[in-house]
Write a structure and sequence with these properties.
- Helix content is 74%, strand content 0%.
- It is mostly helical.
- This is Protoheme IX farnesyltransferase.
């Protein structure tokens, strides 16, 4: 956790709205909102637009609360990593105590309000997601095991299940498949990032796979997880959330993803120069499109179903 100076002091400039908003990790929140919305709209039960809007809003608040709690606990390692040093807490614009208070307050607010807006199952899943990300991943797994991303990836995979539960009040094969899609996508996505940001994790003492097992082993892991991901992603197209659009998109994306993973696996570790990590950065960029387009295809399939068969 952060040292006393991070906990009690802010720098000379007062925190503004942008700093508190950044505390909620808006980029991560946007992924939470999108996948939760897709889960809600893909469900076979219609939801009133106001209930849907309120539910997605409270899911977003819960995701932001998780981000604030993560920044509170990780302020010490964020301070030494180039990628995270400018975040509100390590930079001193927001104190760690403020981040903790905001995270806890928003967590309680989001869970209670989602319960009131939808149902207990959705609220319970949101509460578990916040706990899993803040406690299981951030406080335990991240600094303890190189499997941190593998197990911790579950936190980012729950939002579509929460959205589905908002509409249906339960869990089904389709919502589990959406969870599994995000869960299996997370390791190759973050390991690709770790390959060209490895020095940051080494300085911070985070046992990322690249630090504990080396780049060669990480490249093999990326290939293995990508091979396991492909049939799962394509297979979802043969369920109620799939269809011809999804199957076409998924087949193309998984072909490209597998090709990218093979290129990473085959890459020569001795190559030096400015383009040393071009392959990894290209794969990381593709991974962002991979998830967005898969869920976009699920959304397109839901939109084309007869009125009343989905959440539209």
């Amino acid at each position: 956790m952060s040292d006393a100076s991070i906990n009690t002091q802010a720098n000379d400039g007062e925190a503004g709205f942008g700093d508190y908003f950044a505390l909620l990790k808006p980029r991560v929140m946007s992924l939470v909102v999108f996948t939760a919305l897709v889960g809600l709209l893909a469900a076979p039960v219609g939801v009133h637009p106001m209930i849907a809007f309120a539910s997605v809003l409270f899911i977003a608040v819960g995701g932001g609360a998780s981000g604030a709690l993560n920044m509170w606990w990780d302020a010490d390692i964020d301070q030494v990593m180039k990628r995270t040093a400018s975040r509100p807490v390590p930079s001193g614009r927001v104190t760690a105590d403020e981040a903790l208070a905001i995270g806890l307050t928003l967590s309680a607010f989001a869970v209670v309000m989602l319960w009131l807006a939808s149902n207990a199952v959705a609220a319970g899943l949101l509460a578990f997601t916040i706990f899993f990300y803040a406690v299981v991943y951030t406080m335990w797994l991240k600094r303890w095991t190189p499997q941190n991303i593998v197990i911790g990836g579950a936190a980012g995979a729950f939002p579509p299940m929460i959205g589905w539960a908002v509409a249906t009040g339960g869990i089904s094969l389709e919502s589990v498949l959406m969870f599994a899609l995000v869960f299996m996508w997370t390791p190759p996505h973050f390991w690709a990032l770790a390959l060209f940001m490895n020095s940051d994790y080494e300085k911070a003492g985070v046992p990322m796979l690249t630090v504990t097992h080396g780049r060669r082993s990480t490249r093999v892991h990326i290939l293995v997880y990508t091979i396991l991901l492909a049939p799962l992603a394509i297979g979802a197209g043969f369920t109620a959330i799939g269809g011809p659009i999804y199957l076409t998109v998924s087949a193309v994306l998984n072909g490209l993803f597998l090709l990218g993973a093979v290129k990473i696996w085959r890459r020569d570790e001795d190559v030096a120069g400015a383009d040393n990590y071009r392959t990894e950065k290209s794969f990381f960029g593709l991974s962002l499109l991979y998830l967005f387009l898969h869920f976009g295809a699920i959304l397109a399939e839901a939109a084309l179903r007869p009125f009343g068969m989905g959440g539209w």
